[in-house]
Write a structure and sequence with these properties.
The chain is mostly helical. About 80% of the residues lie in helices and about 0% in strands. α1 (about 1-40) crosses α2 (about 50-65), α4 (about 105-135) runs antiparallel to α6 and α5 (about 140-160) crosses α6 (about 170-190). The protein is globular, with a radius of gyration of 19 Å. The chain starts with a helix and ends in a 9-residue tail after the last helix.
């Protein structure tokens, strides 16, 4: 009986630790990717959204910018920061699960960053759609409208509004979720033992 209790406790602690790691990596890594996207789109970082992104990511991105300074709108340091976070998360999971896939770690982390990018894009579209439904124009809603517009533009060119309703956010979210499922499946196949359910 004690062995069963210890096993349940160990599994529960593993799930809690995995969840906390995933939340931390998703928040900070997502901020790094959003920072990269905002810089690429030449959006002001002094905006409330930009300040929030910087507050979450400065501690990691700024030191990396000294190593890989960017002379173009593409912020390589932010991308590297997200990749490093995913690498550390997956390395910790490998250590906890006793799975030796160290050679594949860079590729697994790259897939993790791609999946995280899907989650960030989905969150941006959902927030922009919800804020647009309120009908109130604020600096935050304007910023999310600017962030989501380039993502939605290709879908809007293909799909016209139905009965005056713009279905492009819904269709893009569905497409992004399919991409996320494919990326998660590839990660699991490479990992071998099966990754715990990760949020991004």
């Amino acid at each position: 009986m004690t062995g069963v209790n210890n096993s349940c406790l160990t599994r529960m602690l593993f799930q809690v630790l995995t969840f906390l790691m995933d939340v931390a990596v998703t928040l900070v890594g997502g901020a790094c990717l959003l920072r990269l996207y905002m810089r690429w789109r030449r959006m002001p970082m002094g905006h409330p959204v930009g300040r929030f992104v910087q507050a979450l990511s400065d501690w990691l991105v700024l030191p990396l910018q000294r190593l890989v300074p960017s002379t173009t709108p593409f912020d390589l340091a932010s991308l590297l920061a997200a990749w490093l976070l995913k690498s550390l998360q997956l390395a910790a999971l490998m250590g906890l699960m006793g799975v030796a896939r160290w050679v594949l770690l860079p590729l697994l982390a790259l897939l993790g960053v791609a999946k995280l990018a899907v989650s960030v894009a989905t969150a941006v579209i959902i927030i922009a759609a919800v804020l647009s439904w309120t009908g109130n124009r604020t600096p935050v809603s304007d910023m999310f409208d600017r962030l989501s517009a380039p993502l939605l533009a290709p879908v809007r060119r293909l799909i016209r509004p139905v009965g005056g309703v713009d279905l492009s956010p819904l269709l893009l979210i569905v497409g992004l979720q399919v991409v996320g499922i494919v990326l998660g499946s590839l990660q699991n196949q490479l990992f071998g033992a099966g990754l715990p359910m990760l949020g991004a």
